[in-house]
Amino acid sequence: MLATDTPFRRFVTDFLRSPGALVGGIGLLTIALLAIFAGLVAPQNPYDLAQIDVLDGSLEPGTEGYAGFKYWLGTDEQGRDMLSAMIYGLRVSLSVSFIAVSAAVAVGMVLGLLAAWRGGWVETLIMRIVDIQLSFPALLVALLLLAALGKGIDKVIIALVLVQWAYFARTVRAAALVEIKKDYVMAARSAALPQSRILFGHVLPNVMPPVMVIATVQIANAIAIEASLSFLGVGVPITQPSLGLLIANGFDYLLSGRYWISFYPGVALLATLVCINIVGDQVRDILNPRLQR
Amino acid sequence: MLAYLIRRFGQAFLVMAVMAAIVFFGLYAVGNPVDLLINPEADLAEQEETIRRLGLDKPVHVQFGYFLGGLTQGDLGTSFVHNRPALELILSRLPATLELAFLGILLAVILGIPLGMIAGLKPDAPYSKVIMTGSVIGFSTPNFWQGLMLIMLFAVFLGWLPAGGRGETVDLFGIPVSFLTWDGLGHLILPAINVAIFKMSLVIRLTRAGASEVALQDYVKYARARGLSPARVLGVHILKNIMIPVVTVLGLETGNVIAFAVVTETVFAWPGIGKLLIDSIGLLDRPVVVAYLMLTVFLFVMINLVVDIAYSILDPRVRVKRGKS
């Protein structure tokens, strides 16, 4: 091995070894870049009223509009370019789930560490809540929470955090229970380091691998749940449509044969989920010590 | 065992109470159902009369008190919109959901098990790869979009099947069912496929994993050596052992099927409890939403309890573990 071999570098080389993961990784990277630079990549700003023309409404994919603008994936009933709307929708879908999962990781990690470190009634209480929550389907819990919270991007994020923290709390606790018994923690304790430093400086980095695996899977889950909620009409507001809401908007036009309004956003959603799942599978295999070569 | 049951029911009760309170107060804060219910042309006296009739003139904690009082008598409140007891309303929609769920699971099993066995026993064959790729896609595709694509293909472009609704029903022991009329069956097929695809992907994966493992075991070799027909080895000896995980997972998934019926029923305008929930959330029909919640929590707790008890009867190791914890 080279002298510059770091865990991260090893991770990257392992990752690139599988051609499937490479395709998934490139796909995911492309999708993420599209979402981040939506304003620069999208041919049109779909929410700038000056740029859209009602006369171009419901055009089939590939037709040219009045101003000579070519709509590759057609337009919706208000004359919005579907390709641009999808890129902007991708941004909403990805950012909502990314923020939600990051917050869920933070909450789950703190509570999971706390449960493992403290034990006793703290652990019993936290883990009982986790068990109860995981026995209900996430979509249903999120749906009922949103019924109580009302609409809005912030509300969707809160609901997603509330249904997802439990996965991380359970994983972190299980991993931390193993780590806490190890010698390095004992050494840190006998050196009289402050508890918070032992937990967050020493134990935390060592419980990260399983958390990373679950986080990738949960981002895909969060995207799917958010899309379903938006489709059901309790998700993001109409002013900031995600892919799910774009699909829902196209539902009404589907019956009259204008399939493209909900077909293409769905393809984008499916591609995103498949890419994340492929990458997640590969990350899991690399970080799984049982599969280590 | 008794202490365990009491603890489980205590927990269930706590979950129901907390969730009911959150939804009750949450729906109160989100908006005023009166705005949606009362004819805007009604005069002030009529409006006040309606508000009083629905009990919405009282402060919310008093309303919650009434709700709890009614609960002890098995009364979950009366729907604002339909003016019928919420429980009765939900129960009247339940057969449609159950019909859909059962047909969905049935399709998943009768298609998923053979496909999974093929993929497990001949893992290198091209058709096995097709089956597995199909199951990955079935797993990743969001349920509602699947439904839309089914409508697009079979209802809009091919025009073979209706896009929504329940069609003609006939009473079977006093319960309306769709599957006994041709029209009803036509309406039922697409939503049932929509429910089935996800479960089928799951069954295929489980069966494949089981089949590839079981097929290598000694008792299968002996069965073959005894000269039993391949069909008998497959259908009796292998199948029996694959069924254990499949049945377990499907039992646990029954609750999920009912939860995800919310999505399928919305797509296909299927008049079950899921559609009722979505409509009620939209109309801020609080009694129905809270009643739905209470019923589903109860249902889930019962399913989990039955699965747990069945486990502890079938598998002594689980019993020992619980005694320790």
Strand content of chain B: under 5%
Q: What is the fourth-level CATH superfamily of one domain in chain B? A: MetI-like
User: What's the CATH superfamily of chain A, by name?
Assistant: MetI-like
Average pLDDT reading of chain B: 79
Distance between the termini of chain A: 15 Å
Overall average residue pLDDT of chain A: 82
Note down, in words, how this protein is organized.
The complex is a heterodimer of chains A (293) and B (325). Chain A has one domain: MetI-like fold, CATH 1.10.3720. The two termini of chain A are 15 Å apart. Chain A has helices at 7-16, 19-36, 38-41, 82-118, 120-134, 138-149, 153-180, 183-190, 195-231, 243-254, 260-287, and strands at residues 63-64, 70-71. Chain A is mainly α and 293 residues long. In chain A, strands 1-2 form a two-stranded antiparallel sheet. By secondary structure, chain B is an all-alpha fold. Chain B has a domain at 91-283: MetI-like fold (Orthogonal Bundle). Helix content of chain B is 77%, strand content 2%. Chain B has 13 helices and two strands, in the order αααααααββαααααα. The longest helix of chain B has 38 residues, at 230-267. Chain B is globular and about 85 Å long. The two termini of chain B are 14 Å apart. Classes of the chains: A mainly alpha (293), B mainly alpha (325). At the A-B interface, helix 6, helix 9, helix 10 and helix 11 of A face helix 1, helix 6, helix 7, helix 10 and helix 11 of B.
